[in-house]
Specification:
alpha/beta; 17 strands; ten-stranded mixed beta sheet; globular
Length: 403
């Protein structure tokens, strides 16, 4: 996920802060409501409440039946330090804007989870001295907003830092212990093999610390994924990694596994349509997975023009859609029925034109062959197989325009 984005406290101060975490929960004055079911936190799509033209959560709730939102991202201050901020710039301690958003969601019967980390920026695990100090910083967030759920989004560049990951996993374990019932997800990068070397090291760190969250989720995009079939294959492979790492059987591994997708055009030019989301949703529910979410609600809107001039946007999806089409898949995963018609499963074509045969990762194409992908017609420049149209500027596919 391409996203907008040192604490060396004295040992005595760190110990005192860690010891105070349980007491902080008891003095919470955030106006938190009764927790939703874990299934709703597991289905909460990401929303940036301070950037990327934030949509109105209340309008999304009315249109789709969605109840939970994954607010992103909490980071260390850009100027250094071990205190939580929104996007590295707005201190949580003095925040009123995000708190107002949360209050509006709760007033309609919904709730939020907060995601820490993300792609880029300085994470608290990098800035704080140890797990206790890191946990104390996150506890401020839990207490301020009366959270029932939190997400640890561990990816570039933090997950390459062994000490930082030790701090993050240790902090997650402390929060889990000090806040009974807190729903904890851990999200990391996905690869065709499930997750890469750093993701596997993160899992081993969790095992060594005896930490088991509600789920470990992977993000199968930005890695040459050719639609839903490549994503479900990665989820199958990740399930095997969970089995081998923790000694779980297949069913237990799926019960601790999650999917975090990207709707529409990804950062690297992959396209994930409503049909792809439907396929992965079927896989997730049939395998009894714990989480199905996506990045992001800010992007769950149509672009004008549809392809957004061939770039990835933070405020629209770059595929043909109605507003909040992708949010409806989260609603379905949570076990609810969207109030409107089901989400569109195939992108609508321009009137009177139609799209040709859909691109397939397994098919072989030669120069001149035409396929449809992401609402566009693509012509092969030369022999190609399993190379996603539009994934590389100088790749084998020529964009012939919308179809």
């Amino acid at each position: 996920m391409k996203r907008l984005r040192a604490c060396l406290a004295a040992v005595t101060a760190v110990t005192a802060a860690a010891a105070a975490t349980t007491a902080l929960v008891a003095t919470d004055a955030s106006g938190a409501t009764t927790a939703l079911s874990n299934r709703w936190y597991a289905a909460a799509p990401y929303l940036m409440p301070r950037d990327n033209n934030p949509p109105d959560p209340a309008a999304i709730m009315d249109a789709t039946g969605l109840k939970a939102f994954q607010l992103a991202f909490v980071l260390a201050p850009n100027g250094g330090g071990c205190t939580p901020t929104w996007d590295g710039t707005a201190p949580v301690s003095s925040d009123t804007a995000v708190q107002s958003t949360i209050a509006a969601i709760r007033a309609k019967g919904g709730d939020v989870s907060v995601s820490i980390g993300g792609y880029g920026g300085t994470k608290l695990g990098q800035a704080c001295a140890d797990p206790a100090a890191t946990a104390a910083a996150y506890q401020q967030v839990v207490t301020k907003y009366g959270l029932h759920a939190i997400d640890f989004d561990l990816e570039e560049p933090e997950y390459e830092n062994t000490a930082a990951i030790r701090n993050e996993i240790g902090a997650a374990k402390i929060l889990q212990q000090n806040n009974p019932g807190l729903y904890v997800s851990v999200t990391t990068a996905g690869t065709a093999d499930g997750t890469g070397w750093f993701g596997k090291q993160m899992l081993l760190e969790a095992k060594s610390q005896g930490f088991t969250p509600n789920n470990f989720s992977i993000m199968p995009f930005d890695g040459g994924f050719g639609g839903a079939s490549a994503q479900t294959a990665a989820l199958t492979n990740f399930n095997q990694i969970l089995q081998s790492t923790f000694g779980w059987d297949q069913a237990t591994a799926y019960a601790h596994e999650g999917f975090s997708g990207m709707n529409g055009r990804s950062d690297t030019g992959e396209f994930f349509t409503q049909a792809d989301f439907g396929t992965v949703l079927d896989y997730a529910t049939s395998h009894h997975m714990d989480r199905f979410t996506f990045w992001s609600l800010n992007r769950d809107r149509p672009c004008t023009p549809v392809d957004n001039n061939g770039t990835t946007s933070g405020t629209c999806s770059s595929v043909a859609q109605n507003a909040w089409d992708f949010a409806k898949y989260s609603v379905t995963f949570a076990g609810a029925t969207p109030p409107d018609s089901p989400p569109t499963t195939t992108p609508p074509a321009d009137p009177g034109t139609g799209c040709g045969t859909a691109w397939s990762a397994s098919a072989v194409y030669t120069a001149g062959d035409e396929v449809s992908y992401g609402g566009h017609t693509w012509k092969a420049k030369w022999w190609t197989q399993n190379e996603t149209p539009g994934a590389a500027e100088w790749g084998p596919w020529q964009d012939e325009g919308t179809c």
